[in-house]
Amino acid sequence: MSITNAQPALIRAFFASFAEGILSADAEKETGTVELTPQRVKQIMLEHYEEISKHFFDILFNPLALIHYDTAEELVAILKSPEVAPTLNSPVDLFRHVCRTEEAHEDMVTEYRRNFASLLGGKVMSLDDFYAGFPDGYLNDCTEDKVREVKALTQVVVRAFFAGRKAAKTMTPSGTNQIYIFRLLLDSMQTLLHPAPVTMDDDTDLNTAFAKVCRNNGNLQTMLQTMQETMMEFS
User: Fold this and answer.
1) Which of 155, 167, 151 is nearest to 214 (CA)?
2) Which residues touch 179 (CB under 8 Å, ≥6 apart)?
3) pLDDT digits (tens, 9 = 90+) for 6-37
4) For the residues 54-63, what does the mean pLDDT come to?
5) CA distance 17 to 87
Protein backbone atom coordinates (compact mmCIF):
# COMPACT_ATOMS: atom_id res chain seq x y z
CA MET A 1 0.00 0.00 0.00
CA SER A 2 1.50 3.32 -1.06
CA ILE A 3 1.52 5.93 1.69
CA THR A 4 3.68 8.60 0.05
CA ASN A 5 0.97 11.26 0.12
CA ALA A 6 -0.93 10.01 3.15
CA GLN A 7 1.29 10.97 6.07
CA PRO A 8 2.11 14.56 5.02
CA ALA A 9 -1.53 15.04 3.99
CA LEU A 10 -2.74 13.94 7.44
CA ILE A 11 -0.30 16.24 9.20
CA ARG A 12 -1.23 19.31 7.17
CA ALA A 13 -4.93 18.46 7.58
CA PHE A 14 -4.50 18.47 11.36
CA PHE A 15 -2.80 21.87 11.47
CA ALA A 16 -5.16 23.47 8.93
CA SER A 17 -8.28 22.14 10.66
CA PHE A 18 -7.17 22.84 14.23
CA ALA A 19 -6.20 26.38 13.25
CA GLU A 20 -9.49 26.89 11.40
CA GLY A 21 -11.39 25.82 14.51
CA ILE A 22 -9.56 28.38 16.64
CA LEU A 23 -9.40 31.22 14.13
CA SER A 24 -13.03 30.98 13.04
CA ALA A 25 -14.13 30.89 16.66
CA ASP A 26 -12.04 33.95 17.44
CA ALA A 27 -13.52 35.83 14.49
CA GLU A 28 -17.06 34.94 15.56
CA LYS A 29 -16.47 36.39 19.02
CA GLU A 30 -15.74 39.79 17.50
CA THR A 31 -18.34 42.22 16.24
CA GLY A 32 -18.11 43.39 12.66
CA THR A 33 -15.61 42.20 10.09
CA VAL A 34 -12.37 40.78 11.47
CA GLU A 35 -9.32 40.63 9.26
CA LEU A 36 -7.09 37.68 10.09
CA THR A 37 -3.77 39.36 9.38
CA PRO A 38 -0.55 37.35 9.79
CA GLN A 39 0.13 39.23 13.03
CA ARG A 40 -3.29 38.32 14.42
CA VAL A 41 -3.00 34.69 13.33
CA LYS A 42 0.41 34.46 14.98
CA GLN A 43 -0.89 36.02 18.20
CA ILE A 44 -3.91 33.70 18.37
CA MET A 45 -1.86 30.56 17.70
CA LEU A 46 0.73 31.56 20.28
CA GLU A 47 -2.09 31.68 22.84
CA HIS A 48 -2.73 27.99 22.09
CA TYR A 49 0.90 26.99 21.60
CA GLU A 50 0.99 24.33 24.31
CA GLU A 51 -2.24 22.68 23.20
CA ILE A 52 -1.10 21.86 19.68
CA SER A 53 1.27 18.99 20.49
CA LYS A 54 -1.23 17.31 22.85
CA HIS A 55 -4.04 17.42 20.29
CA PHE A 56 -1.64 16.32 17.55
CA PHE A 57 -0.87 13.13 19.45
CA ASP A 58 -4.48 12.45 20.46
CA ILE A 59 -5.87 12.99 16.96
CA LEU A 60 -3.08 11.64 14.72
CA PHE A 61 -2.15 8.43 16.55
CA ASN A 62 -4.96 6.23 15.22
CA PRO A 63 -4.99 7.64 11.64
CA LEU A 64 -1.23 7.17 11.35
CA ALA A 65 -1.58 3.61 12.61
CA LEU A 66 -4.35 3.08 10.07
CA ILE A 67 -2.09 3.96 7.15
CA HIS A 68 1.08 2.25 8.39
CA TYR A 69 -0.33 -1.07 9.63
CA ASP A 70 -2.76 -3.57 8.17
CA THR A 71 -4.39 -4.22 11.55
CA ALA A 72 -4.45 -2.60 14.99
CA GLU A 73 -3.42 -5.93 16.49
CA GLU A 74 -0.14 -5.79 14.57
CA LEU A 75 0.82 -2.47 16.18
CA VAL A 76 -0.41 -3.52 19.63
CA ALA A 77 1.74 -6.65 19.48
CA ILE A 78 4.82 -4.53 18.72
CA LEU A 79 4.08 -2.05 21.51
CA LYS A 80 3.57 -4.89 24.03
CA SER A 81 6.65 -6.86 22.97
CA PRO A 82 9.39 -7.34 25.60
CA GLU A 83 11.84 -5.39 23.45
CA VAL A 84 9.63 -2.34 22.92
CA ALA A 85 7.32 -2.02 25.96
CA PRO A 86 10.05 -0.93 28.44
CA THR A 87 11.18 1.86 26.08
CA LEU A 88 7.77 3.57 25.85
CA ASN A 89 8.10 6.52 28.20
CA SER A 90 6.40 9.33 26.25
CA PRO A 91 4.19 10.07 23.23
CA VAL A 92 7.38 10.65 21.23
CA ASP A 93 8.37 7.02 21.82
CA LEU A 94 4.94 5.83 20.69
CA PHE A 95 5.11 7.90 17.52
CA ARG A 96 8.38 6.26 16.54
CA HIS A 97 6.55 2.97 16.34
CA VAL A 98 3.23 4.18 14.92
CA CYS A 99 5.23 5.58 11.98
CA ARG A 100 6.68 2.08 11.61
CA THR A 101 10.02 3.06 9.99
CA GLU A 102 12.69 5.56 10.96
CA GLU A 103 12.32 7.24 7.58
CA ALA A 104 8.58 7.75 8.07
CA HIS A 105 9.19 9.08 11.58
CA GLU A 106 11.76 11.56 10.32
CA ASP A 107 9.34 12.67 7.60
CA MET A 108 6.63 13.12 10.24
CA VAL A 109 8.88 15.34 12.33
CA THR A 110 9.83 17.40 9.27
CA GLU A 111 6.20 17.99 8.27
CA TYR A 112 5.20 18.78 11.86
CA ARG A 113 7.88 21.45 12.03
CA ARG A 114 6.99 22.85 8.60
CA ASN A 115 3.34 23.25 9.50
CA PHE A 116 4.06 24.57 12.98
CA ALA A 117 6.49 27.14 11.61
CA SER A 118 3.92 28.29 9.07
CA LEU A 119 1.33 28.93 11.80
CA LEU A 120 3.83 30.77 13.98
CA GLY A 121 4.70 32.78 10.89
CA GLY A 122 1.10 33.91 10.66
CA LYS A 123 -0.62 31.57 8.19
CA VAL A 124 -1.88 28.08 7.59
CA MET A 125 0.42 26.34 5.13
CA SER A 126 -1.01 26.94 1.65
CA LEU A 127 -1.40 24.17 -0.91
CA ASP A 128 1.35 25.73 -2.98
CA ASP A 129 3.72 25.74 0.00
CA PHE A 130 2.78 22.16 0.84
CA TYR A 131 3.59 20.87 -2.63
CA ALA A 132 6.75 22.99 -2.86
CA GLY A 133 8.19 20.97 0.02
CA PHE A 134 8.49 17.79 -2.06
CA PRO A 135 10.66 16.97 -5.07
CA ASP A 136 9.04 16.25 -8.42
CA GLY A 137 7.71 12.72 -8.55
CA TYR A 138 7.55 12.21 -4.78
CA LEU A 139 3.80 12.66 -4.41
CA ASN A 140 1.40 10.30 -6.17
CA ASP A 141 -1.32 11.03 -8.71
CA CYS A 142 -3.91 8.54 -7.50
CA THR A 143 -7.13 7.72 -9.35
CA GLU A 144 -7.92 4.46 -7.51
CA ASP A 145 -10.03 3.93 -4.39
CA LYS A 146 -8.11 4.89 -1.25
CA VAL A 147 -10.64 3.86 1.37
CA ARG A 148 -8.26 3.60 4.29
CA GLU A 149 -6.42 6.86 3.57
CA VAL A 150 -9.57 8.86 2.76
CA LYS A 151 -11.21 7.64 5.96
CA ALA A 152 -8.14 8.57 8.03
CA LEU A 153 -7.85 12.06 6.53
CA THR A 154 -11.56 12.80 6.97
CA GLN A 155 -11.41 11.78 10.63
CA VAL A 156 -8.42 14.07 11.17
CA VAL A 157 -10.14 17.05 9.56
CA VAL A 158 -13.33 16.70 11.61
CA ARG A 159 -11.67 15.92 14.96
CA ALA A 160 -8.98 18.58 14.62
CA PHE A 161 -11.55 21.23 13.71
CA PHE A 162 -13.67 20.46 16.77
CA ALA A 163 -10.55 20.31 18.94
CA GLY A 164 -9.79 23.84 17.78
CA ARG A 165 -13.33 24.98 18.57
CA LYS A 166 -13.06 23.43 22.02
CA ALA A 167 -9.68 25.08 22.61
CA ALA A 168 -11.26 28.41 21.70
CA LYS A 169 -14.21 27.58 23.98
CA THR A 170 -16.68 28.19 21.16
CA MET A 171 -19.20 25.95 19.48
CA THR A 172 -21.58 26.93 16.70
CA PRO A 173 -24.73 25.38 15.19
CA SER A 174 -24.00 22.15 13.28
CA GLY A 175 -24.85 23.72 9.93
CA THR A 176 -22.13 26.31 10.35
CA ASN A 177 -19.60 23.70 11.43
CA GLN A 178 -20.42 21.62 8.36
CA ILE A 179 -19.63 24.54 6.06
CA TYR A 180 -16.18 24.88 7.63
CA ILE A 181 -15.57 21.14 7.40
CA PHE A 182 -16.60 20.92 3.75
CA ARG A 183 -14.13 23.66 2.92
CA LEU A 184 -11.36 21.94 4.87
CA LEU A 185 -12.05 18.59 3.21
CA LEU A 186 -12.07 20.15 -0.25
CA ASP A 187 -8.68 21.64 0.51
CA SER A 188 -7.09 18.69 2.33
CA MET A 189 -8.25 15.91 0.00
CA GLN A 190 -6.15 17.44 -2.78
CA THR A 191 -2.94 16.71 -0.85
CA LEU A 192 -3.91 13.05 -0.50
CA LEU A 193 -5.01 12.24 -4.06
CA HIS A 194 -3.19 14.75 -6.29
CA PRO A 195 0.47 15.63 -6.94
CA ALA A 196 -0.37 19.34 -7.37
CA PRO A 197 -3.22 21.74 -6.49
CA VAL A 198 -6.43 21.10 -8.42
CA THR A 199 -7.39 23.84 -10.86
CA MET A 200 -11.06 24.82 -10.89
CA ASP A 201 -13.15 27.49 -12.53
CA ASP A 202 -14.56 30.21 -10.28
CA ASP A 203 -18.12 29.05 -10.98
CA THR A 204 -17.50 25.36 -10.15
CA ASP A 205 -20.28 24.12 -7.85
CA LEU A 206 -19.55 22.17 -4.68
CA ASN A 207 -20.64 18.75 -6.02
CA THR A 208 -18.45 19.09 -9.11
CA ALA A 209 -15.53 20.32 -7.01
CA PHE A 210 -15.69 17.34 -4.66
CA ALA A 211 -16.06 14.90 -7.56
CA LYS A 212 -12.91 16.35 -9.09
CA VAL A 213 -10.92 16.40 -5.88
CA CYS A 214 -11.98 12.90 -4.75
CA ARG A 215 -11.21 11.43 -8.19
CA ASN A 216 -13.92 8.75 -8.10
CA ASN A 217 -17.23 7.92 -6.47
CA GLY A 218 -15.69 5.39 -4.07
CA ASN A 219 -13.45 8.00 -2.48
CA LEU A 220 -16.28 10.54 -2.43
CA GLN A 221 -18.71 8.19 -0.68
CA THR A 222 -16.04 7.13 1.84
CA MET A 223 -15.37 10.79 2.66
CA LEU A 224 -19.05 11.69 3.08
CA GLN A 225 -19.88 8.64 5.19
CA THR A 226 -16.83 9.09 7.42
CA MET A 227 -17.57 12.81 7.81
CA GLN A 228 -21.11 12.11 9.01
CA GLU A 229 -20.01 9.32 11.37
CA THR A 230 -17.22 11.42 12.87
CA MET A 231 -19.37 14.52 13.28
CA MET A 232 -21.79 12.41 15.33
CA GLU A 233 -19.10 12.27 18.01
CA PHE A 234 -19.63 16.00 18.57
CA SER A 235 -23.40 16.29 18.26
Assistant:
1) 151
2) none
3) 999 999 999 999 999 988 887 777 655 556 78
4) 94
5) 32
